[in-house]
């Protein structure tokens, strides 16, 4: 068992207080957006096995079968296939979508061939992997997820009573679903000049004016995005997306091609080990409209909020349709739980103190905000700690 030393990413949209509170630290006054736990080369966790801190990525690379187990290595390759995060949004993140595995491999190979530096602002593909993800709310968590039906999006735009939105509304009402959504998104994200800025300003004012009378909270969410990103045409694109509010313990699974944006709140995020993002507005960063249109799945549908399902080990599991990651949540009582050791796993304590006991009798205590990597030993680990809450990230074999 390895206690993890993790990196906090200080993105501008991060909460100033949420991650410091989780870690029991004083806020620095600067945004702290994401706490990374895993072996992603961008910010790998550190472990110390008696010879000083080492990158978890290096430890796994030195002996992947020993760390990940033969089954996981054969199935996913010689790297940890998931990345666990605590995400704390104080301001809206950019709207974005993620590629399929095939799209990621092709896009990465193409950009490598064209020798686009990995840190270049126009670079889309940082690696050759897909990035499905799961977000589980620790606090009330607000976001945008997936396309509304064209008719619903048209009605929403029409309710703002802005004549300049008329052509977009006509397209949404007059074309088939996929064509309508792709056409409007392409039009909006290609807007430039003073006319575009004026329309975005009018939309921001209209959604802010409508917010007090909207019982769903959607207009307030759009207004928040508009205040945070003034003049960004992504605000109009955001009207195409469903607004959703998760309560603590609720989760969303986001597969390839699903446009989404997190607006505010704190959650545990689990994803495939990738950093591939195609942005579609609400950001000062590069938006590659042609590539985005190629990646996005223009299919409407309401977000499916996931509620955890009880498992035989006392955990509550969040079902996802892929094998690279699986998230479980333990709310501990007097009973000791047994964690199977066939696969690699990361544990994160979010409340109380959890105690781990390995088969050889060694122990490790995790306080709130602390995490541990458990290699695939093939033996069970005991988990105890009345009143503690622990999230477990692993794979499906």
What tags apply to this protein structure?
single chain; 397 residues; alpha+beta; 8-stranded antiparallel beta sheet; 7-stranded antiparallel beta sheet; 12 helices; globular
Can you lay out the helices and strands and say which pair or pack?
Blueprint: E1 2-3, E2 7-9, H1 18-23, E3 34-37, E4 46-48, E5 53-55, H2 56-62, H3 64-68, H4 70-76, E6 82-89, E7 96-97, H5 101-113, E8 133-137, E9 141-147, H6 150-159, H7 166-174, H8 177-189, H9 193-210, H10 218-228, H11 234-238, E10 241-246, E11 251-254, E12 260-272, E13 278-279, H12 289-295, E14 309-310, E15 316-318, E16 326-331, E17 337-339, E18 345-351, E19 354-357, E20 363-366, E21 371-374, E22 381-384, E23 389-394
Helix pairs in contact: 6-7, 7-8, 9-10
Write a short abstract of this structure:
By secondary structure, the chain is an alpha+beta fold. The protein is 28% helix and 26% strand.
Describe the structure.
With 397 residues, the protein is α+β, with helices and mostly antiparallel strands. Helices cover 28% and strands 26% of the residues. It has helices at residues 18-23, 56-62, 64-68, 70-76, 101-113, 150-159, 166-174, 177-189, 193-210, 218-228, 234-238, 289-295, and strands at 2-3, 7-9, 34-37, 46-48, 53-55, 82-89, 96-97, 133-137, 141-147, 241-246, 251-254, 260-272, 278-279, 309-310, 316-318, 326-331, 337-339, 345-351, 354-357, 363-366, 371-374, 381-384, 389-394. Strands 2, 3, 6, 8, 9, 10, 11 and 12 form an eight-stranded antiparallel β-sheet that branches. Strand 19 (354-357) and strand 20 form a beta hairpin. Helix 6 runs antiparallel to helix 7, helix 7 runs antiparallel to helix 8 and helix 9 runs antiparallel to helix 10. The two termini are 21 Å apart. The relative contact order is 0.18.
């Amino acid at each position: 068992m390895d206690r993890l030393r993790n990196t906090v990413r200080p993105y501008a949209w991060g909460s100033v207080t949420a991650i410091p509170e989780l870690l029991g630290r004083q806020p620095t006054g600067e945004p702290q957006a994401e706490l990374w736990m895993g072996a992603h080369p961008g910010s790998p966790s550190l472990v110390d096995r008696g010879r000083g801190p080492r990158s978890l990525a290096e430890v796994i690379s030195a002996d992947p079968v020993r760390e990940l187990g033969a089954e996981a290595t054969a199935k996913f390759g010689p790297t940890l296939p998931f990345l666990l995060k605590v995400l704390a949004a104080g301001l809206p993140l950019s709207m974005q979508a993620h590629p399929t595995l095939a799209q990621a491999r092709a896009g990465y190979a193409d950009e490598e061939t064209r020798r686009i530096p990995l840190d270049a602002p126009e670079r889309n593909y940082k690696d050759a992997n897909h990035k499905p993800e799961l977000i589980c709310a620790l606090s009330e968590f607000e976001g945008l997820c997936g396309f509304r039906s064209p008719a619903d999006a048209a009605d929403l735009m029409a309710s703002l009573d802005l004549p300049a939105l008329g052509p977009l509304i006509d397209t949404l009402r007059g074309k088939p679903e996929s064509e309508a959504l792709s056409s409007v998104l392409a039009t909006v994200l290609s807007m430039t000049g003073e006319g575009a800025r004026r329309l975005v300003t009018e939309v921001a004012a209209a959604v802010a004016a409508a917010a007090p009378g909207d019982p769903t909270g959607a207009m307030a969410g759009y207004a928040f995005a508009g205040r945070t990103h003034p003049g960004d045409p992504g605000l109009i694109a955001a009207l195409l997306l469903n607004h959703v509010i998760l309560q603590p313990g609720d989760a969303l699974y986001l597969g390839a091609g699903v446009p989404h944006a997190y607006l505010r709140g704190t959650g545990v995020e689990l994803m495939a080990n990738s950093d591939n993002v195609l942005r579609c507005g609400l950001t000062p960063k590069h938006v590659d409209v042609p590539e985005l249109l190629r990646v996005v799945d223009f299919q409407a549908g309401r977000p499916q909020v996931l509620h955890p399902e009880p498992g035989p080990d006392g955990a509550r599991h969040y079902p996802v349709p892929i094998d690279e990651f699986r998230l479980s949540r333990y709310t501990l009582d007097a009973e000791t739980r047994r964690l199977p050791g066939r696969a690699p796993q990361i544990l994160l304590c979010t409340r109380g103190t959890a105690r781990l006991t390995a088969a050889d009798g060694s122990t490790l205590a995790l306080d709130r905000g602390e995490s541990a990597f458990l290699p695939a030993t093939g033996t069970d680990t005991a988990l105890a700690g009345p009143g503690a809450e622990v999230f477990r990230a692993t794979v499906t074999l």
